[in-house]
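Page header: ASSEMBLY MODEL / two components / 489 residues total.
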Amino acid sequence: MAQKWGQKLRQLMMKSMDLPHDVIMDLPRITMIGQLHIYIENHRGLLTFTDTELRLMLKNGQLLIKGNSFSIKAILPEEILLEGKIDHVFFINE
Amino acid sequence: MKNQWTNFLAGYIRVKADGIGTERVINKLIKQNIYIWNVKRAGSHSILFNIQLKEMHKFRNAVRNSDCKLSFLEGRGGPFLFKRLLKNSGFLAGFLAFVVLIFLLSNMVWGIEIRGAKPETEHLIRKELDKMGVEKGKIQFLLDDADDIQRKLTNNISALTWIGVELKGTTFHFQVVEKKQPDEQVKLSPRNLVAGKKAVISKMFVVKGQSVVAVHDYVKKGQMLVSGTIGNPDKPKIVAADGEVWGETWYKSQVEVPLITNFSVFNGRESVKHYIKIAKFSIPVWNFKKPDYKNFETELSERPLKFLKWELPIHYKTATHREKEDVTRKYSVKEAVSKAREMGKKDLMKLIPEDSKIVGEKILHQTTDSGKVKLSLHYQVIENIAVGQPIIQGD
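Prediction written out in full:
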């Protein structure tokens, strides 16, 4: 019940104060440049990394990126920049 | 995100991680704020990535108890390049030596060219140059500069009227003008000899012509001394009168000598400072001491350094400080008078022809006022007063 209350309060704040969602709700901010780059802020760690697949932990659930010839250009505690040919981006919610 | 080229400058290492938990290793590293980049998979159980060289120790500690096998593949960037450069230091040293050699050779004297001189004079000049140290293979900026060489040569070689010294590239060019040797006796045209100034004739030595005055005669300026018309008055023969007529002439001069004079003289103490001047900044390279002279004069000389045919904006500069001293000279009246007479005589010697003789000297008048001795001097001089005057032959 308490968690729901918190959720509702946040939703309310967002609507009334016009703040960006990712700041308030700890959501990932994803920027893509065509199929070439994908830049994800606010991730929670790397789960899998292969040539064709990148799986990232998020606050709620996971982010799955599929494509080919992946390489991580840079990785920081909350940011990651992936390069390659990106075909799919999936959100996996538990 | 960090800049790629600063990483390159500081150096980085390519690392290979082998094992099952490679993703866990990466998570662990980024948790500890170790920056990694260019992560790539190399096979199913291994990944490659870069870490900064300075974070190596942090990295080792972080991965100590992970189940991955880590290996450093290669180092790239600044420190590694530098290491390789040191390893191949022979090349570097060779290159530096080459530049230094070219620089040295561009600043040497490679030729001495003397133009317009007779072989004897040229030999003299070469000997004098050797004495000054101007030879092939000497460093230019350690020699005297062109003006000094010119002055020394003109002073030391009497056969020279003028010498032009020019340093073109690595060659000294000398343009010589020699003193004219006396011309051969020209054939004299018919003439009389007349007095150049008023005098009392003391000696006559007539080679040709008819003398019209005698010893002890007083002659005025322009008066005929030796006539070029000889022989029978009815049938005169006109020749070029030749000879010497010595007469006693008179000169007057005024000389003033102050009793007390202040001079500023160099006392021989000097210090030379050496600088390398780049653009407008002088960097002292030798002799940093500040001279403790109260009064001094500074002489600057600047030499450009050359590289191949270009003059570099770098100069070799020397500053010579010479100490000056004030000296007061005091004369008694007697000393002043003798000094004045000496000066008067010296001045007169410059005025009269070289073969003249001063035979008498008298003080006409002597005054001492406002610290000065004034002398009026009178001189008797024996000199050749004969001057040629052409006879214009009528028709």
